[in-house]
Amino acid sequence: MTLDDETAAAIEAAVLAVPGVAELYRANPGLGTAVDSARRLAGRAPGSRVALDEDVLRVVIGTDGSVPAPSTARAAHAAAYEAATGHGVTLARVDVRIARVG
Amino acid sequence: MQHQPLADLDDAVLAGRSSDGDVRAFEVLIRRYTPLLRAYARRTLGSTDELDDVVQETFITAWNRLDALDDGARVKSWLMRILSRKCIDRIRARHVHDDVTELEVAAPDDGAPDRVAEARSREEAVETALAELPDAQRRCWVMKEVLEYRYEDIAAELDLPVSTVRGLLSRARKNMIRLMEAWR
Amino acid sequence: MTGPDDVVLDALEPDDLDGHTIDELADYLDAGMQPPDASIDDSAACQNALAALVRLRRSSMGSLDAAAEHEAPADESWIGGVLANISLEARAGRDVPLRPVAPTERPVMTEGAIRSLVRTAGDVVPGVVIARCSLEGDVTELDAPVRVLVELAVRSGVPIHAVAEQVRSAVAGVLAEQTDLVVAAVDVRVRDLLHEQPDADRTPHHDDEEDRA
């Protein structure tokens, strides 16, 4: 299943609104900042920072340390899950990865 | 809050923190060594538009390869070795016929000692002397004496037999000693 | 005009160097002059040649350092150009699980993020800088006991045991609050004295803004 631009944007906005979330990183490790179109995942809308792998949504965040990281991860998960399913995406899981703290 | 300004830390601590993912520490290394790397690139590639790119690429590669740096205190020469490799690649790319390994046996010309003697400092004298060497001798000298490569590594980098590298270094050593005797 | 202190190094062939080539001498230098070779150590000509090589080596690096002073320093946009092309991924290390609550959760934190937590906690202790941090054990498995290794550089005169204890306590505290790691131990090792760089870069920049997202 593919994430359309609108859904991806809604998920990103929801996650960024979570207290303690400072930033959202590209969810595909190894690409750095260069977008390699040949290796783009089928499930990811171009330019988006969240990725859908079949029924698993992957989100990579940086936290600002104001809230303990485990709580922030939970809240980010909840926000992403709600936004995605609210746009009709079927999800088994949301994997939140904290790549940076404080 | 940090009590010790990052900018005052020594190379070993900065390299270790960079390897652990501290971007601010890496930034200090960038500030600290950009001028040196520029100077090296300028002397290797000439003054060209490529200087900025090749030095930036060096830092980007360094960040990705920090695992390979065993001794953080040696980050300076490690950075220079990464740069050296990129410069050699660019020199190769410039020419259809590879001049990285030209093996002419030419010695410095007769005017060389006078030019060295005119230098106003020992550092300037060495730089003048180096510039007087044939390219292949200078490259081997710099790779051995400044970058601290081993003979086999120089041979691998320049795609030459080790015996040729030894021969070039032998000539470079004699030429450098003789030229520097002209400077007092 | 030559005398014992004024050996002319014009002549660098084996005949002039008591049977040695300049290259043997260079290799001897590389080896730290070990094992000692009396035929070199006791030869005035060889000693002069060795001294010349040592001076040359030093001056070669020195000439580059001098040349560096005439090069433009890295400015903000230059640095930005590098930073835009380096990724946290490259130094992220392993994914360390956090405790999931709902079955739709699978949260993780990277080792890189954990190390930065440790640095921030440890750097607060006066007179101390975290030099390195690593996690030992099966970090990718939730509830597996993990040993945290921290290496410090401390300012001369700082009481080592006291600061080590402060760091240990600060690190244990932040890991308990911000991760779900089962920390078996926090090993703090003082590795170094803090050395000032000889020409420390005094260009004002934004250390205080680090990591303020």
Rounded Rg of chain B: 18 Å
Q: Give the assembly state of these chains.
A: heterotrimer
The CATH homologous superfamily of the largest domain in chain B is called RNA polymerase sigma factor, region 2, helix turn helix motif
Strand order of the largest sheet of chain C: 3-4-5
Query: How many beta-strand runs of chain C?
Result: 5
Q: Give the termini distance of chain C in whole angstroms.
A: 71 Å
**How many β-strand runs of chain B?**
0
What does this structure look like?
- The complex is a heterotrimer of chains A (102), B (184) and C (213).
- The radius of gyration of chain A is 13 Å and the shape is globular.
- In chain A, helix 1 (5-16) runs antiparallel to helix 2.
- With 102 residues, chain A is of the alpha+beta class.
- Helix content of chain A is 29%, strand content 25%.
- In chain A, strands 1, 2, 3 and 4 form a 4-stranded mixed beta sheet that branches.
- Chain B has 184 residues and is mainly alpha-helical.
- In chain B, 67% of the residues lie in helices and 0% in strands.
- In chain B, helix 3 packs across helix 4 (75-94), helix 7 crosses helix 9 and helix 8 crosses helix 9 (162-181).
- Chain B is globular and about 60 Å long.
- Chain B starts with 10 loop residues before the first helix and ends with a helix.
- Chain C starts with 21 loop residues before the first helix and ends in a 20-residue tail after the last strand.
- Chain C folds into 2 domains: 22-68, no CATH class; 91-196, Alpha-Beta Plaits (2-Layer Sandwich), CATH 3.30.70.1350.
- By secondary structure, chain C is of the alpha+beta class.
- Chain C has helices spanning 22-30, 38-41, 44-68, 76-83, 111-123, 160-178, and strands at residues 95-97, 108-110, 128-137, 145-154, 182-193.
- In chain C, a hairpin with a 7-residue loop joins strand 3 (128-137) and strand 4.
- In chain C, helix 1 (22-30) packs across helix 3 and helix 5 crosses helix 6 (160-178).
- Helices cover 37% and strands 18% of the residues of chain C.
- Residues 1-8 and 200-213 of chain C have low confidence and may be disordered.
- Classes of the chains: A alpha+beta (102), B mainly alpha (184), C alpha+beta (213).
- Chains B and C meet through helix 1, helix 2, helix 3, helix 6 and helix 7 of B and helix 1, helix 3, helix 4, helix 5 and strand 3 of C.
- Strand 4 of chain A pairs parallel with strand 2 of chain C, so a sheet runs across the interface.
